[in-house]
Specification:
By secondary structure, this protein is α/β, with parallel strands linked by helices. It contains 7 helices and 6 strands, in the order E-H-E-H-H-E-H-E-H-E-H-E-H. The chain has one domain: Rossmann fold (3-Layer(aba) Sandwich), CATH 3.40.50.
Length: 180
């Protein structure tokens, strides 16, 4: 089985901007491309798992999310880094139409991590979930992963409310250097 690092997107990979979907608004957090390249070189799968409730709320479409992910992948490629897989949850309880349905993919539930494990033969117990919110940490714990909170995005605000089982780092690069 493979080892993976699951990454939240907003506030972990990119600067937090409410309901980000426009390429023009995308900005990497400092050190992120280097961190992802370190994971790639170590042979650790990198999988993004992100809640995208803006789809359920009608702010943007699933296609918009995928277009932004292709842009991020292209920007990473310029630095020699890559994401192995992108998973996102478009649902929200107060969403519209079919997006309002109950799901098991919206973090803090572990559905996206478990789906990635099934698809890519990932050993969740030897993998890690890194994010800037309590929901990321809870999803990782529920899936059986090691968990890391980064202080970027909402991380500083969330830190007092996160399980003591989570390790805390200032940013993704410092977390990855510790993992590898």
């Amino acid at each position: 089985m493979k080892r993976a690092v699951f990454l939240d997107r907003d506030g972990t990979i990119n600067v937090e901007k409410d309901y980000l979907y426009r390429i023009a608004d995308f900005e990497f957090i400092a050190g992120v491309p280097e961190a992802i390249k370190i994971l790639n070189r170590a042979g650790i799968m990198v999988i993004v798992v992100t809640n995208q409730s803006g789809v359920a709320r009608g702010y943007y479409t699933e296609d918009d999310v995928e277009i932004l992910h292709r842009h991020i992948a292209s920007e990473l490629e310029r630095t020699g880094a890559y994401i192995d897989a992108w998973l996102f949850c478009p649902h929200h309880p107060s969403g519209r139409d079919s997006y309002a349905l109950p799901c098991n993919c919206r973090k803090p539930l572990p559905g996206m991590l478990k789906e990635a494990s099934r698809r890519y033969n990932i050993d969740l117990h030897n993998s890690a979930m890194i994010g800037d919110k309590r929901a990321d940490i809870e999803a990782g714990l529920a899936a059986g992963c090691r968990t890391i909170l980064v202080r970027t995005g909402y991380g500083r605000e969330e830190e007092p409310h996160v399980s003591h089982q989570a390790i805390v780092f200032d940013d993704l690069l410092s977390a990855v250097k510790c993992i590898v």
